[in-house]
Amino acid sequence: MTAVALRFRPIEVADEAFLTHLYATTREQELAHSGWSAEAIAEFLAQQFRLQHHYYQEHFPDGEFRVIEADTQAIGRLYLFWGETTLQLIDISLLPGYRGRGVGSALLQNLLALADARGLAVGLHVEEANPAFRLYQRLGFEVVGESGIYLEMRRPARASRKRASG
User: Fold this and answer.
1) Strands 86-94 and 121-127
2) Structural domain boundaries of the chain?
3) What is the pLDDT along the chain (166 residues), one digit of tens a residue?
4) Apex 60 CA angle, 59 and 65, nearest 5
5) Helices 38-59 and 16-31, interaxial angle, to 10°?
6) Contact in structure between 11 and 19 (CB atoms under 8 Å)
């Protein structure tokens, strides 16, 4: 894949329609055979997005909630919380056209480098069926717990690769 220059900006009220659509793209397959009308699915997913977003903001009041842009076009979201000992990856989502093209891998590798530079572990939750699960394993994450349908994964803190000159 050709390198994509990404920009991250704080979410704004005007981003709600995009973020709702993005969330829906992560759940559409799950509901495709529900027997519900397209309108009912859309309303359900919009409601689920609002609940999830509210939950994240309530539980991570100091979190970073960002829209990911490529060439000024919104392509995803990145929600992070920088704790004292852990960088918590609350959520990373990309539009379907950007999945499986190395964008998420590059983003994660950059985040891991930042965490390494600060001596932080990195934590996240993921469904085992999510294709990103294998990516997380390749990047050194290990399953450390379970919560319902989600696996809790953690990558231990690593020393910064920078060496003191001397």
Assistant:
1) parallel
2) 6-155
3) 456 789 999 999 999 999 999 999 999 888 888 999 999 999 999 999 999 999 999 999 999 999 999 988 999 999 999 999 999 999 999 999 999 899 999 999 999 999 999 999 999 999 988 889 999 999 999 999 998 889 999 999 987 655 444 4
4) 130
5) 120
6) yes
Are 92 and 78 within 8 A, CB to CB?
Answer: yes
Pick the CATH number of 6-155 from 3.30.590.10, 3.40.190.10, 3.40.50.620, 3.40.630.30: 3.40.630.30
CB 151 within 8 A of CB 133: yes
Q: Considering the entire predicted model, what is its pTM?
A: 0.88
CB 90 within 8 A of CB 80: yes
Task: Measure the CA–CA gap between 70 and 91, rounded to whole angstroms.
Answer: 18
Assign 99 to helix, strand or coil.
Answer: coil
At 59, list the tokens.
Answer: 């539980």
